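Protocol step 4 of 5: obtain the predicted structure for the target chain.
Materials: sequence only (see below). No template structures provided, no constraints applied. The aim of this step is simply to have a reference model before the mutagenesis design in step 5. Sequence pasted as it appears in the construct record:
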Amino acid sequence: MSRTVFVVHCVDTEGPLYETPAVPFEQIKNIFGIEIEPSRENLIRLQNGELDLGGKEEAIKNLVDLHRITTRGTWEEIDEMLAQVTSEAYRRQLLDADGNGWVFNWFCMDHVGFTGNNPRRRDAGYHRIFDHYAALAKKQNAGDFIGFHYHPLPISGNYNDSGTSYWGGENLNQILTRKIIDRGWFPSAFRPGFHTERPDSHWFLEQWIPFDYGNQACEASETGQTDLENGRFGDWRYAPLEWYPYHPSHDDYQSKGSCRRWIARCLNMYARTRQITQQDVEAAFVAASAGDDTILSFTDHDYKDMAFEIDRVRDMIAAASAKYPGVRFVYANAVEAMRKALKLPYQDFSLDAYTVKGEGPRRLVVKVDADIFGPQPFLALKTKDGRYIWENFDVSVPRREWSYTFDSNTIDLQEIDTIGVAANHACGIARVVLLRDGRREAYAYQT
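Step 4 output (structure tokens):
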């Protein structure tokens, strides 16, 4: 019996990206070692493949493709584009099997922790991008979703460079503690920055975030992009090619195993590598026609020409749907798609947090009434002098009860302004509890 293709558009949401006309020529020099005089005329000749580049003409033509190098450098430019693609008329140009229009999944990044140059004028600061898209999603009420996107900090500190490490610094914890305490929010779905996961990010995700849209496995193809070879910027060479999520192995996120989270395949919409094709789209419909629900997910950036990329993929979906009329396709958010495709039972849960004073130091006690996704909730503390701190729990009852002791080895409770606790259920429900000013505040995200 035919099943459903759940269509999930994942947007790596990073805000404005300003680029000077010299940037493509700098990239050519850095990647291919070829110096070309920056000019509009030379750019056009490169895009037409008219310059002799010693056999690298097609690779460089791919790099400087007009749609790939065109970015929006201000919020005004992005908002103008968003007004088009998030309009009801545009969303509904191709309706799904339930009569609904396009859904966006905004995986938001914070540009924080960088210490070097910011020549592309990224909007730096906590919550800057998150707040912009959370407000848009709330205003439109069209089923759009907010997820989490993270770029590890580079050694150089420069905004344009790519780091490799989640461990060794507090940046990631600072972002999440502030999301919990300042916004009452915790992510249940994740998109990796630069499409890249490594052992440390693999194990980080295993503790807290159940749904991961990172897998960029694709049929091998030669693109000539030397800076992306050998698994650089996303090593998914050995991951499953299926449009069905998998549990990764403990020692290898690309192999199927017994870890907790689910990893879904998610190809680029229009990029110089791992770009989704008509064949890829049809593979999701073929699998569904054989009786398996599938998740067809793809990604782009909010600073690009999203209409061009959406139109391209939407045409592919329409063609595949016409070829396989017995298969339903449904636009979905990142959590809903996982839950429905994997047949995960909807399981709400309560998260309780309170402080107790016994004969010893004061303790924070956290309890849940159903097993949570990982081994512990995420503990966020804000001090009265404005510091944000992440801490580990002691495990009282595995998956059900935890404690944290405030004493001379940690921090005195009198120094604490706010305590935040967050956890996910395996089905993607996130709950947050805040304790401050003698009050308990609770937040739930029941997508």
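Step 4 remarks: Residues 97 and 219 are 29 Å apart (CA to CA). DSSP finds twelve helices and 17 strands in the chain.
Proceed to step 5.
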